[in-house]
Amino acid sequence: MPATISYRDMEAVVTPPNGYLEPFPLTLGPTQQPNDVRILFVSGSESASGGVSEAIQLNPDPPTGYTGAYTLDPGFETRGVYYRRIASGDTDTSVAWIKPTGWRDFLWVPITARGVDPAVAPVAGDLTANLSHSVGSTTLTVSSVTVPAAGEMIFCLWTVADPEGTWPSWPGSLGVPTGWNPLVATDQSGATFYATGTNPSVVVIGKKFAASGSTGSISVPIADGSHAFGGMYVFLRPAPDSTSVAGAVTTATTVGASSSSSTTNPVSVAGPVTTRSTVGQAFNGLTGYRISDPLYLTGTAVTGSVIRWNVTPGSAGSTYLVETSINNGASWDVATNNAQVPRLRSGDTTTLTVLTRVTMTRLSSSDTSPKMTSLELQVSCDASVDEYVPIGHGVIISVKPSIGTGSSSSGGGNGVFSSGGGQTGSGLFLKVKCVDPSRSISKNPWQKPFTLNTEPYDQAAVAMVTNRLPTQEDFSVVSANRTTDLLIYGLSQSDAWQDIRDLATACGFEAFFDVAGTFTFRQVRDPRITPPVWTFTDDATCTVTQIDRELTDDQTLNYIVVKGESTSSQNPVSAFAYDNDPSSPTYVGGRFGAHGAVITIPSVTTAEQAQTAANAILYASIGSCETTTITTVPIPFLECGDCVTVSIGDVESDGRYVINQITTSWPGQTITCFRQSSQE
Asked: What's the pTM value of the predicted model, to 2 decimals?
């Protein structure tokens, strides 16, 4: 399928420069990439005696490095559509005009388009002869324009006061016609159309056409008045499959409210932008890659980062690789899903941008490549303001009002802390109990049989969650690179949430809702290889106020039997794993003896699955169970499942652990960490 054309680095200006040959910068855009097309709509004239217009020269015409797709009168009149294919090493350029006695009109609209066919030049032209309007009408009619092929048509329309028109002769704002999409506009036009606006204005709109033909007649909403209109267009063809080097990319962008000043420079300036990109399959060649737009940092100290993605595997032998760069692409680091950005350390104030690169390969051109359905990058910086982070997300299940009784001080005055009251002594307080969304799934048993058959494990888990909790929208899942066999749930009144957790266990994964309410499906963290996200030490910057370490054999197992349950007419399957290393302290034939467990997992339906689960459980159970409980100042970004390093000499706790439980209360935080001692 052809590429999807996307637009960025747009602005719309109707305020002309003031000085003689004053440079007017034509920037390439902060998110540029090679093969992006920078497009410029520009028009201008000066007022002359008698209320007529005179041409004014654009210098140079066309702008340096640009090609004129349409020009009204090159080297004499300022009116044209220019384009430039961006290449590595491109720099900004500028244009200028002489200083006229007075500007009659001025229009300046630069746009960057991505995904344009590199082998076909943009087609552009003038629309002024296609525009018709009656005095007092609230509609501007644009007669049909030829569409040469499948692609996207962009119209740039503007209004100025008409010196020869009847009253009212002021300019007006422009809206968006039905079926067209707003790209950029001046204040009170485009998506923020104000029907009684009286300022010079411009609106840029676009529409995708699936085949050649025509645009048909278009009705553009306008403010009431007698206006002078101008217009130009450009037609862009999307890059076809045969020229693509990476999969199709679609971007869902949320833009904050626009703002501008109509008294100084009426430029539409977008608000904060959040982008979530999706990379499609690579349809040509054996290797494809995509480099993201840079994520710009503030220059203040970095406090944390995370990169996460969801991917669907392709044919056997196909691969994908996610990398990040903190030096604008000079070098790349392999990223780990749901982990921090490599080499972007806490306290970093020198890194200005972060890039991501996704590379996909396949063995032959007929194979299906992996498909990355989402890629998310987040970096938090110290803004020197109070920040609130979530410590839990759930449904309130009980609210209990209580009255605390203040304790007495030694001097007979009122106590500060009460035995049952709040931090300020006696008074009314509420105890609110919340449980994460898993409770809602448990409370909603299967209403009818729910069947899975050869589904990827991660997508099967998502399907089960959405079936029992349709309101759940946030997911962070990792591919297990394997598919389910035939599984049928709901034949008995089983707990749907337990079924989801059993499904995860069957492939060595875990399923839970994080503190922000995101359903997470990922591999169980291995402290030996998982990068730690935090280190607890007893140095000068110690945050730990108390630490307890306990070694037991309560969870030490050296013999595991995993059993499945029959589905349809199949017989139950089973597998076992045991510690058969004679040098191991927990050798099943040694002095430790046989300490075993029989575990039933309903979603295990094959011997291979049973063996995988048994091996995973055995490995996590060999060695003494070591639990370290840390009392520390609150570290709100830590969550269960994170890997941390503990290095406290007094209790001889040194190594990497996985967080099992976090309790946050005033004035501190209690973190329970776990590992099997033989893993270090």
From this structure: 0.43
